[in-house]
What we know:
CATH superfamily of the largest domain in chain A: MetI-like
Oligomer: heterotrimer
Strand order of the largest sheet of chain B: 10-9-11-8-12
Distance between the termini of chain B: 66 Å
Helix content of chain A: 55-70%
Number of helices of chain B: 14
CATH class of the largest domain in chain B: Alpha Beta
CATH superfamily of the largest domain in chain B: Periplasmic binding protein-like II
Order of helices and strands of chain A: HHHHHHHHHHHHHH
Order of helices and strands of chain B: HHEEEHEHEHEEEEHEHEHEEEHHHHHH
Largest interface: A-C, 56 and 56 residues
Amino acid sequence: MAAMADTPVLYVRTAPAEQLxxxxxxxxxxxxxxxxxxxSAGNTILTLAFAALIFWAVPPLVRFLFIDAVWSGxxxxxxLASPAHPEPGACWAFVRVWLSYFIYGFYPIAExxxxxxxxxxxxxxxxxxxxxxxxxxxxxxxxxxxxxPVLSFILLYGFPALGLAAVPTNLWGGVLVTIVVAxxxxxxxxxxxxxxxxxxxxxxxxxxWFAIGFIEFVRGVPLITVLFMAxxxxxxxxxxxxxxxxLLRALIGVAMFASAYMAEVVRGGLAAVPxxxxxxxxxxxxxxxxxxxxxxxPQALRVTLPNIVNIFIALFKDTTLVFVVGIFDFLRAIEAAxxxxxxxxxxxxxxxxxxxxxxxxxxxxxxxRYARSVEVRLSRSDRR
Amino acid sequence: xxxxxxALSLALLLAFSAQVARAQTLQTVKQRGQLICGANGTLGxxxxxxxxxxxxxxxxxxxxxxxxxxxxxxxxxxxxxxTAGNRFTALQSGEVDxxxxxxxxxxxxxxxxxxxxxAVTFYDGQGFMVHKSLKxxxxxxxxxxxxxxxxxxxxxxxxxxxxxxxxxxxxxxxxATADEATKAYDSGRCDSYTTDSSQLYSERLRLTNPDDNIVxxxxxxxxxxxxxxxxxxxxxxxLVRWTHHAMLDAEELGVTxxxxxxxxxxxxxxxxxxxxxxxxFGQSIGLTNDWAYRIVKYIGNYGESFDRNVGQGxxxxxxxxxNALWTKGGLQYGLPVR
Amino acid sequence: MNGAIKSARYxxxxxxxxxxxxxxxxxxxxxxxxxxxxxxxxxxxxxxxxFGFWNNSAGFDISQTLIxxxxxxxxxxxxxxxxxxxxxxxxALGVVLATILGxxxxxxxxxxxxxxxxxxxxxxxxxxxxxxxxxxxxxxxxVLKALPELRGSIVLPTGGFLNNRGLFLPRPVFAPGFAAxxxxxxxxxxxxxxxxIWARRRRERTGAPTPVGWWIAVLIxxxxxxxxxxxxxxxxxxxxxxxxxxxxxxxxxxxxxxxLLLALSIYTAAFIAEVVRAGILAVPSGQTEAAQALGLRxxxxxxxxVVPQAMRAIVPPxxxxxxxxxxxxxxxxxxxxxxxxQVFAGSVLNITGQAVEVIAITMAVYLTISLxxxxxxxxxxxxxxxxER
Lengths: 384, 338, 389
């Protein structure tokens, strides 16, 4: 002890040392890389393998879709391999020439503005309902479920009294049909689906069994067979003079199909409403319909909105199946145009499919992102 | 209780609405102001709309002829594109008034499907198309070949019969539509494509390189094509049948679209009866007496329609062959108007 | 007072019964009306009805038949079975492939490797948001039709060809002695099961790890191999031959089949991946942490703690995906693969014209598959329900 006291103190740190920055290999981009992509030998191999995959797949894809692509031209000559252009990429010229057919089908050219107005009116309705803080969303619902269907029918099908010439549905095609089928499916299936869901939870056995029978039957068979049934059997089941239109038959099939799935989603929403809500409504002596309409359904539908959007996405993709009953939706229009000998090249099919994939992806992915944001918002407000 | 009673009566009403009698087809068409005609929609030369929705073709012209006879206006027709699969249901269910869609007249269709064929407008037969590079010159050399065929047609059955009767091996690849079958053949999925030879000529034009494909000489089946109507409406069937014969008679008598007005003054009693100058033949089928005049005026005679749509005046260039008039060695024999 | 309540209760009761009777009457009326109309329409159209067509000669050819079938001797009934078996074949193989791919991608999405997780996420988003029909057409028309034509076939090193008419592989032809190999395989599987049960019991009793994986592999693979060697390889291979028009002999895989299988597996895998991911995330992280606290390695944790609990959440939606795959196989009609819908609701319907009967049978088949699967699922759910202690 004493020796220590004798020894002169040479250096004593009076202030704490400054913190060194962490080693460069564990922070910033490199650190992130090490932690997320090269944390172990196995991980490194995985990373390298997948990076190789990207380098193998992406450049040719970009070359095909953009760099080597042909953007305009009168016929297939421009998209065939030539000395100047040894490996032709996507033939966008083909899409350009056929684009109006892909959108409108055989809808008369002079009347196509009506389709454009319909698209705009529909976009307005979807925006109004989809934007959760839009003003007067009750009016929006009225617009979407009552005014819009009537307006669309008058616009698209025609109303000679108003000077809109009738356009028979066999001239409709392309994106128009895709959107009409998907929207009618969702608009019609929501009320039917709600009724079916209520029926399935009903205390009345006859009502319950009917709802269960319908839902399970439709969910148990492929959409193609439902469409076949609507197209081939429906005309036999109704009196001769009704002669339902071909598109109408497909719409009935799609609406039936979507209703069964909608019912299950709504049922999930009903189950999520706490029992206390039902009991409180009963205690206030509300009748069954007022209890459902004023207390339960508004809460149930709010939580189901993301799932309703998911059904819409599925329906949007499933509209491609209406080809089995001879209706030319967007995808079928591309298939038909692909057979045009003026544009027969080795890349025509791939180009058409790439275009279709882009179209469906943008719509479906956009809707999926929207559904997810609503979901996040709802769970946030629940936590409050 | 009152509500239940109302609902009950509604349900009963629904059930009995089936008992309402069906109006006669001609009456329905006249009331509607428009003929609804089931046509092909994808077969160039027979029934195909252009991107503006104007239909042309041999079968299409036949429907226009009916419309001309009824309304004095060949444009009063709505065409419904039908597939081989749904054409009969469309006719049975009343969706179309007449089916004019290269349909083969067979006994089972005539007797079990609830429809009647009114006439044979085109004598056809099933043939084969092959890639030239195979160096095949006869269908009998196709032993072991794979053949693309459209589903639900007599061709599917004839094909199996033909290969069986010649003890040849066969690989069938079946597609739901003629369009898909053609595309598959074009891409080399099959050695051969089989369907009615008229259709082969038409589809050949849609191939990537039409000249690399040939139609083989063999005709392996009888395919009398003609318009069909629902069974049980005999006067409508008469109207459709006589539309065809009026066009044949006009060709035989030398009455054409361009000279039909002069022919009204013809001294030939057959011509005078056909064009309604003499007799009451139009009224007997529920039309005006100038019904045949209207047909020829707007559509032309049989030969003109044939040439314009599928014959030498068209890209298909099908020879008249069996479809020549009986006076020229063919089978088309116009029945007398008298 | 009491009487008023009583009468109110009676009137409520009457209202409930009345409502149900009303529904029954409406539904009954609709069905009756449809029936009358159909009978009337069919009668007027002179369309035959009933199931008499079942035993009539079919007369058309089918490109892929798992059971003996020929155009000249077979009936519509046999065509039905051919179509049904083709549906079941593509569905069964699709389920296996989609499960493998889906589990791999679902686990990859949870990987700590950023690149792997992102790529798996990209796969799921891309595939889920493009219609199955479009993918099917892409595989069939853009990929498989782009293969070389017959004369330019790719010759496989094992003997066989690949061209735009399909993949042609050597077909094994089994000699009679092959039965011994099959028997050995069965014995091997049985022994492996016994061994597995024994090992588990031992582990539960003593707590000592009892690794038997290698022994199981030896039993299942080794026994049949040994039998194969002892029996002197009673297997011959029939090689496909190039003929004038086609490749003949060998095992033929149609491009239609390959395209349908690819499209169904790839599409369903994206949905299965989401199911798997959700299932794994549903296992509370406390479970993993507790296992790690006990000193279990991460592989063991995954195998013994996470997966068994995740399976409970995975299996019901997974079965739904299997059913979807089976129902989606009806898209075969778009590319000409002879499944139930293409053969039966296509060719048979068009030839016989009996729409009502044919469509009713087709729907009944899918409905039966769905209902049987749901039944099994309910049983499974009851078996694996958490026993609260």
